[in-house]
Write a structure and sequence with these properties.
By secondary structure, the protein is an all-beta fold. The protein folds into three domains: 123 residues, Sandwich (Jelly Rolls), CATH 2.60.120; 83 residues, Carboxypeptidase-like, regulatory domain (Immunoglobulin-like); 82 residues, Immunoglobulins (Immunoglobulin-like). It is 0% helix and 49% strand. The chain has no helices and 29 strands. The strands form seven sheets. Strands 1, 3, 4, 6, 7 and 9 form a six-stranded mixed sheet that branches. The chain has a five-stranded antiparallel sheet with strand order 12-24-23-26-27, with no helix packed on it. Strands 21, 22, 25, 28 and 29 form a five-stranded mixed sheet that branches.
Length: 345
């Protein structure tokens, strides 16, 4: 379900592929070289509670991983682990070298569930189901000048299975999309817990981050009902307490006519006398059948991209905590380009 995601949330990355990670990303004009396509990595089978002593080196295969709206790749060690009972899978990685390592938890098929980064020790705790096999990947996420040659990094991986009661109440964050391309995020959805002691709790929508958030949910899994006017409701079982938000996609009851057009561009800002492309800018459609649909500019090039749009005149607003908002009108037809030129606050 998770794809490859400033919005910035409680726990997020400014840019995987840099030598570090932060809890709050500040938009920059970083334009890194696009990574080569990742290749599959060999995996080692381990058991819960089995300590692993390993080494990341230049001879290791490459794993692909992702943040919210883009991917990266890095030298990687991978492990398959099958949990014997439902509970909280705890994974801890320790190392002594000055190296940025990230811990990823995925399904056995390689779909990313959660991640943790980048300073030792890295700790991850998340709900898991009995008898299910998960993939743990430990990746070197930095890009030194000598990459892919890196000094060997020795590490220890420890795992444990804890009862749900061992974890305090946690948050659950979600992104709601309104189209199969997952470019149209919805700001007018309603998310409600259907089961357990938190039944009836409704998520709060954060205009700045574009996230729906439940706070203080009990550890484990919850059944969520996602709904919005004009869309078919969706019920889904979600894990609580992950760093990455869950992605939910709602389907329109009636398809938009001729929704084959796109709108894309760059959000530019004139800062310190120099024009730069800014990441993390919210771009939102204000009127028509897509009123309330939004996206964010990416973390690499300051670009946004909305797909599956009907043709016609639209009012579009770009806004950011660091920039003065700007609203422009545009006639969308085919592949339409609309750039924003914004001033610092």
């Amino acid at each position: 379900m998770l794809r490859t995601a400033r919005r910035v949330v409680l726990v997020s990355f400014a840019l995987l592929g840099s030598a570090g990670c932060s809890d709050r990303a500040v938009p920059t004009a970083v334009v890194p070289t696009a990574p080569d396509p990742p290749v599959a990595s060999a995996r080692r089978v381990i058991e819960v509670g089995q300590p692993v002593n390993g080494r990341i080196s230049s001879t290791d295969p490459v794993c692909g991983f992702s943040n919210w709206e883009g991917g990266w790749e890095g030298l990687c060690n991978a492990f398959d682990i099958t949990v014997p009972a439902t509970g909280i899978l705890s994974a801890t990685v320790r190392w002594a070298a000055d190296a940025p390592l990230a811990l990823f938890l995925k399904t056995s098929a390689g779909d990313q569930i959660d991640l943790s980064c980048c300073n030792t020790p890295v700790v991850m705790q998340l709900p898991v189901d009995s008898g299910v096999t998960y993939r743990i990947e430990l990746a070197y996420v930095g890009r030194p000048a000598s990459y892919p040659q890196v000094p060997p990094v020795d590490y220890t991986l420890e795992t444990a299975l804890l009862p749900f009661e061992a974890q305090s109440p946690r948050a659950l964050q979600a992104i709601v999309f309104g189209d199969p391309t997952r470019t149209q995020r919805l700001s007018h959805a309603r998310l409600e817990v259907l089961d357990g002691p938190a039944a009836g709790t409704v998520a709060r929508f954060d205009e700045a981050t574009g996230l729906y958030e439940f706070a203080g949910l009990p550890a484990g899994f919850v059944l969520i009902l996602a709904s919005a006017d004009g869309f078919t409701p969706l019920t889904e079982r979600l894990p609580v307490g992950l760093s990455l938000p869950r992605e939910l996609m709602l389907e329109r009851r009636e398809a938009l006519l001729d929704a084959t057009n796109t709108l894309a561009g760059v959000t530019w800002a004139d800062a310190s006398g120099r024009r730069s492309a800014w990441s993390g800018v919210k771009v939102e459609i204000l009127d028509g059948p897509l009123a309330g649909v939004f996206t964010f500019t990416d973390e690499f090039f300051g670009m946004y991209h909305l797909k599956g749009l009907p043709p016609g005149l639209m009012q579009v607003r770009a806004s950011s905590e660091w920039l003065q908002p700007q609203t422009l009108g545009v006639v969308v037809s085919g592949n339409t380009i609309l750039h924003f030129f914004m001033q610092p606050r």
